[in-house]
Specification:
Number of helices: 3
Helix content: under 10%
Radius of gyration: 31 Å
CATH architecture: Beta Barrel
Largest sheet: 16 strands, antiparallel, barrel
Strand order of the largest sheet: 2-3-4-7-8-9-10-15-16-17-18-23-24-26-27-30
Oligomer: single chain
CATH topology: Porin
Distance between the termini: 85 Å
Shape: globular
Strand content: over 45%
CATH superfamily: Porin
Number of domains: 1
Length: 521
């Protein structure tokens, strides 16, 4: 019995030990792996953020530009703001380059109020250096730059933050590609701070209202507001006779005038945002849009401090119509895009926003024996002088383009734009009084009105999806209304290395070729 009992106990102990060993060998239950899942709710490229119901999409592009005959990236050669782009001398760069990376982050979350969306667009660029006319000449640029083009939240029809203006056409400033400086409409492609509400009425019909921060967006909605008495300190106009009294302008003032600077910049603080409204019809045949805005002009003071007084605030306005016709008979995917705009006291909405200098000049040869010729112009919302009210400037323009698809790999386009600016009687009197004091009237006729036009062609080759090579050729013509010749110390512009001499007042032209490679992702 003792032997049987020992065998039973030993067998039981062995079974228990074996069971324990087998239990120890069993794997522990692992945590579930959270795989990144495709989010098909909002189109290709969206993924669920792990552990959330929010979908995210990353995108952007890498771009390399080379501009021949221009002094800024695909922009305005006539600008004195682009460091001797229009000097046409040894300080003028014959080419200009840029390397850029753009990164976009788009998130969307479905809620009981609809989709909550955030979007951000960050840009990193390195540009070529350009020369200024100091003695000795110095180089500027060539360093990395960071920009935030868009950053907004959308919720229940509202948009809060930085993005394009509802005044813009859907193609912003590019009806068929082209440079940043096609006149004839607004161009907030890099964004402007705003609060906007959009109502969708169905069938492609929508309406929007917006308040827009005129102090943002590469100048926001503001152009120049010139105090024409700032040069001489005593320019004034009689309220009864209209006669202008002006202390002779200094040589420095004359050098400013020849660059299209018609007074001292004299904006006061912003008191009201721009107020905008828009109606759009977007259907299979194309698109129609009309937009209008009110723009406040609030100046600083007549003189150096608040005891000198100031003109009353004044409102400007602008209206713009947009038309796009899609799938025209010339080919599938072909389109014609057009827009027209009129502004009174809101010139920035006619002459675009990005890369548009608010005063510019360009030099070339003379056919009448003068040292050189020069054309210059200045853009402004309004002008005032000592003791006067603000007089708004008026501008109108149009732009358009035609896109043609030769095949899936080749697309060509033609485009153009034109705009005019007109100064009022009082404004011309104040500006031309300064002009006469600096240059005299014996050999020159003063008229700050001007027109400018741009036409161009481009071709884009897409050898593989999301990789494009572009060649774009554009011609710019400045039709300035000054005539005759000017001379004397006031003609010297040190920033352009231009000496005091006799210059012919003449229309100017420029030609720019852009070569671009871009990879979207």
């Amino acid at each position: 019995m003792k032997l049987v009992k020992s065998l039973l106990l030993g067998s039981a102990a062995g079974l228990i030990a074996a069971g324990g060993a087998q239990a120890a060998d069993l794997p522990l239950k692992a945590k579930a792996v959270e795989y990144v899942k495709i989010c098909s709710l909002y189109g290709a490229g969206f993924y669920y953020m792990p552990g959330t119901d929010t979908c995210i999409k990353l995108g952007g592009y890498v771009r390399a530009d080379m501009v021949l005959g221009g002094a800024n990236d695909y922009g305005f050669r006539n600008s004195n703001a682009t460091f001797n782009g229009g000097s046409n001398n040894r300080l003028t760069s014959y080419y200009y380059g840029r390397a850029r990376m753009d990164l976009t982050v788009d998130t969307r979350t479905a809620t009981e109020y609809g989709v909550v969306r955030t979007f951000a667009d960050m840009v990193f660029s390195v540009d070529s250096q350009t020369a200024s006319g100091s003695t000795p000449s110095t180089l500027s640029g060539g360093t990395a730059g960071l920009g935030l083009y868009h950053a907004f939240i959308q919720f229940a029809g509202f948009t809060f933050g930085r993005t394009v203006s509802i005044f813009d056409a859907p193609w912003t400033g590019y009806p068929a590609g082209g440079p940043d400086t096609i006149p004839g409409g607004s161009n907030f492609v890099t964004g402007v701070n705003q609060a906007t509400y959009t109502a969708d009425f169905g069938q492609g019909v929508s309406g929007s209202v917006s308040i827009q921060d005129q102090g943002t967006g590469n100048g926001g909605g503001q152009s120049n507001l010139w105090n024409a008495s700032g040069f001489a300190g005593s320019a004034s106009i009689s309220s009864t006779t209209g006669a202008i009294t002006l202390t002779p302008a200094s040589t420095a003032a004359g050098a400013a005038l020849i660059q299209g600077i018609y007074g001292s910049p004299d904006w006061g603080g912003t008191r009201s945002p721009d107020i905008l409204g828009q109606v759009r019809v977007d259907q299979a045949w194309g698109l129609f849009q009309i937009a209008a805005l009110a723009h406040e002009l609030n100046s600083a003071y007549y003189g150096a401090n608040e005891t000198t007084g100031h003109p009353d605030m004044k409102w400007g306005w602008a209206v713009q119509g947009v038309l796009s016709i899609k799938n025209i008979p010339t080919g599938a995917g072909d389109s014609i895009n057009m827009q027209a705009v009129y502004a009174d006291g809101a010139a920035h909405y006619v002459f675009g926003n990005i890369s548009w200098p608010q005063n510019f000049s360009m030099y070339s040869g003379s056919g009448i024996g003068a040292y050189q010729s020069v054309g210059f112009a200045g853009i402004s919302d309004g002008v005032f002088g000592a003791g006067t009210s603000i007089e708004t400037t008026k501008a109108w323009g149009f732009r358009g383009g035609y896109n043609h698809n030769w095949n899936p790999n080749w697309v060509s386009a033609i485009y153009g734009g034109y705009a005019q600016m007109s100064y009022g009687t009082m404004s011309k009197g104040l500006i031309c009084a300064n002009f006469a004091a600096a240059y005299g009237t014996a050999t020159a006729t003063c008229n700050p009105d001007f027109a400018i036009g741009v036409v161009g062609v481009n071709t884009v080759w897409t050898p593989v999806k999301n990789l494009a090579f572009t060649a774009d050729l554009s011609w710019t013509h400045l039709d300035q209304k000054y005539s005759g010749t000017i001379s004397g110390p006031a003609t010297a512009v040190s920033a352009f290395a231009k000496p005091a001499a006799t210059y012919e007042l003449k229309d100017q032209n420029s030609l720019t070729l852009l070569l671009r490679a871009q990879r979207n992702f």
